[in-house]
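Hi everyone,

Forwarding the result from last night's run.
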Amino acid sequence: MSRQDPWMNLLGLANRARKIISGEELVLKEIKTKKAKLILISKDASMNTSKKLQDKCTFYHVPFRFVESRVKLGHSIGKDERVVVAVLEEGFASKLASMLDE
């Protein structure tokens, strides 16, 4: 296995700090209540799921970023494959966004 991306380590840290939520329905709820500070969507999510999440993020003004795969996203938080993760804390969200923008 190759070296983990730095964003994966930070997301793992956010997970241990209990500052993330994963799973489509839970994430959509966090977007609507404006608790989500950043949404991470895997590039291999279905078109329907990806569009629904992007539309909600745009409507509620929640930033989102794409990550390589659902396997990497799930692995970074110590779970099986995950299509979407919401970051609930501003510090983690801004750092993750800047790491993913590089």
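The chain has a mean pLDDT of 94.

Cheers,
N.
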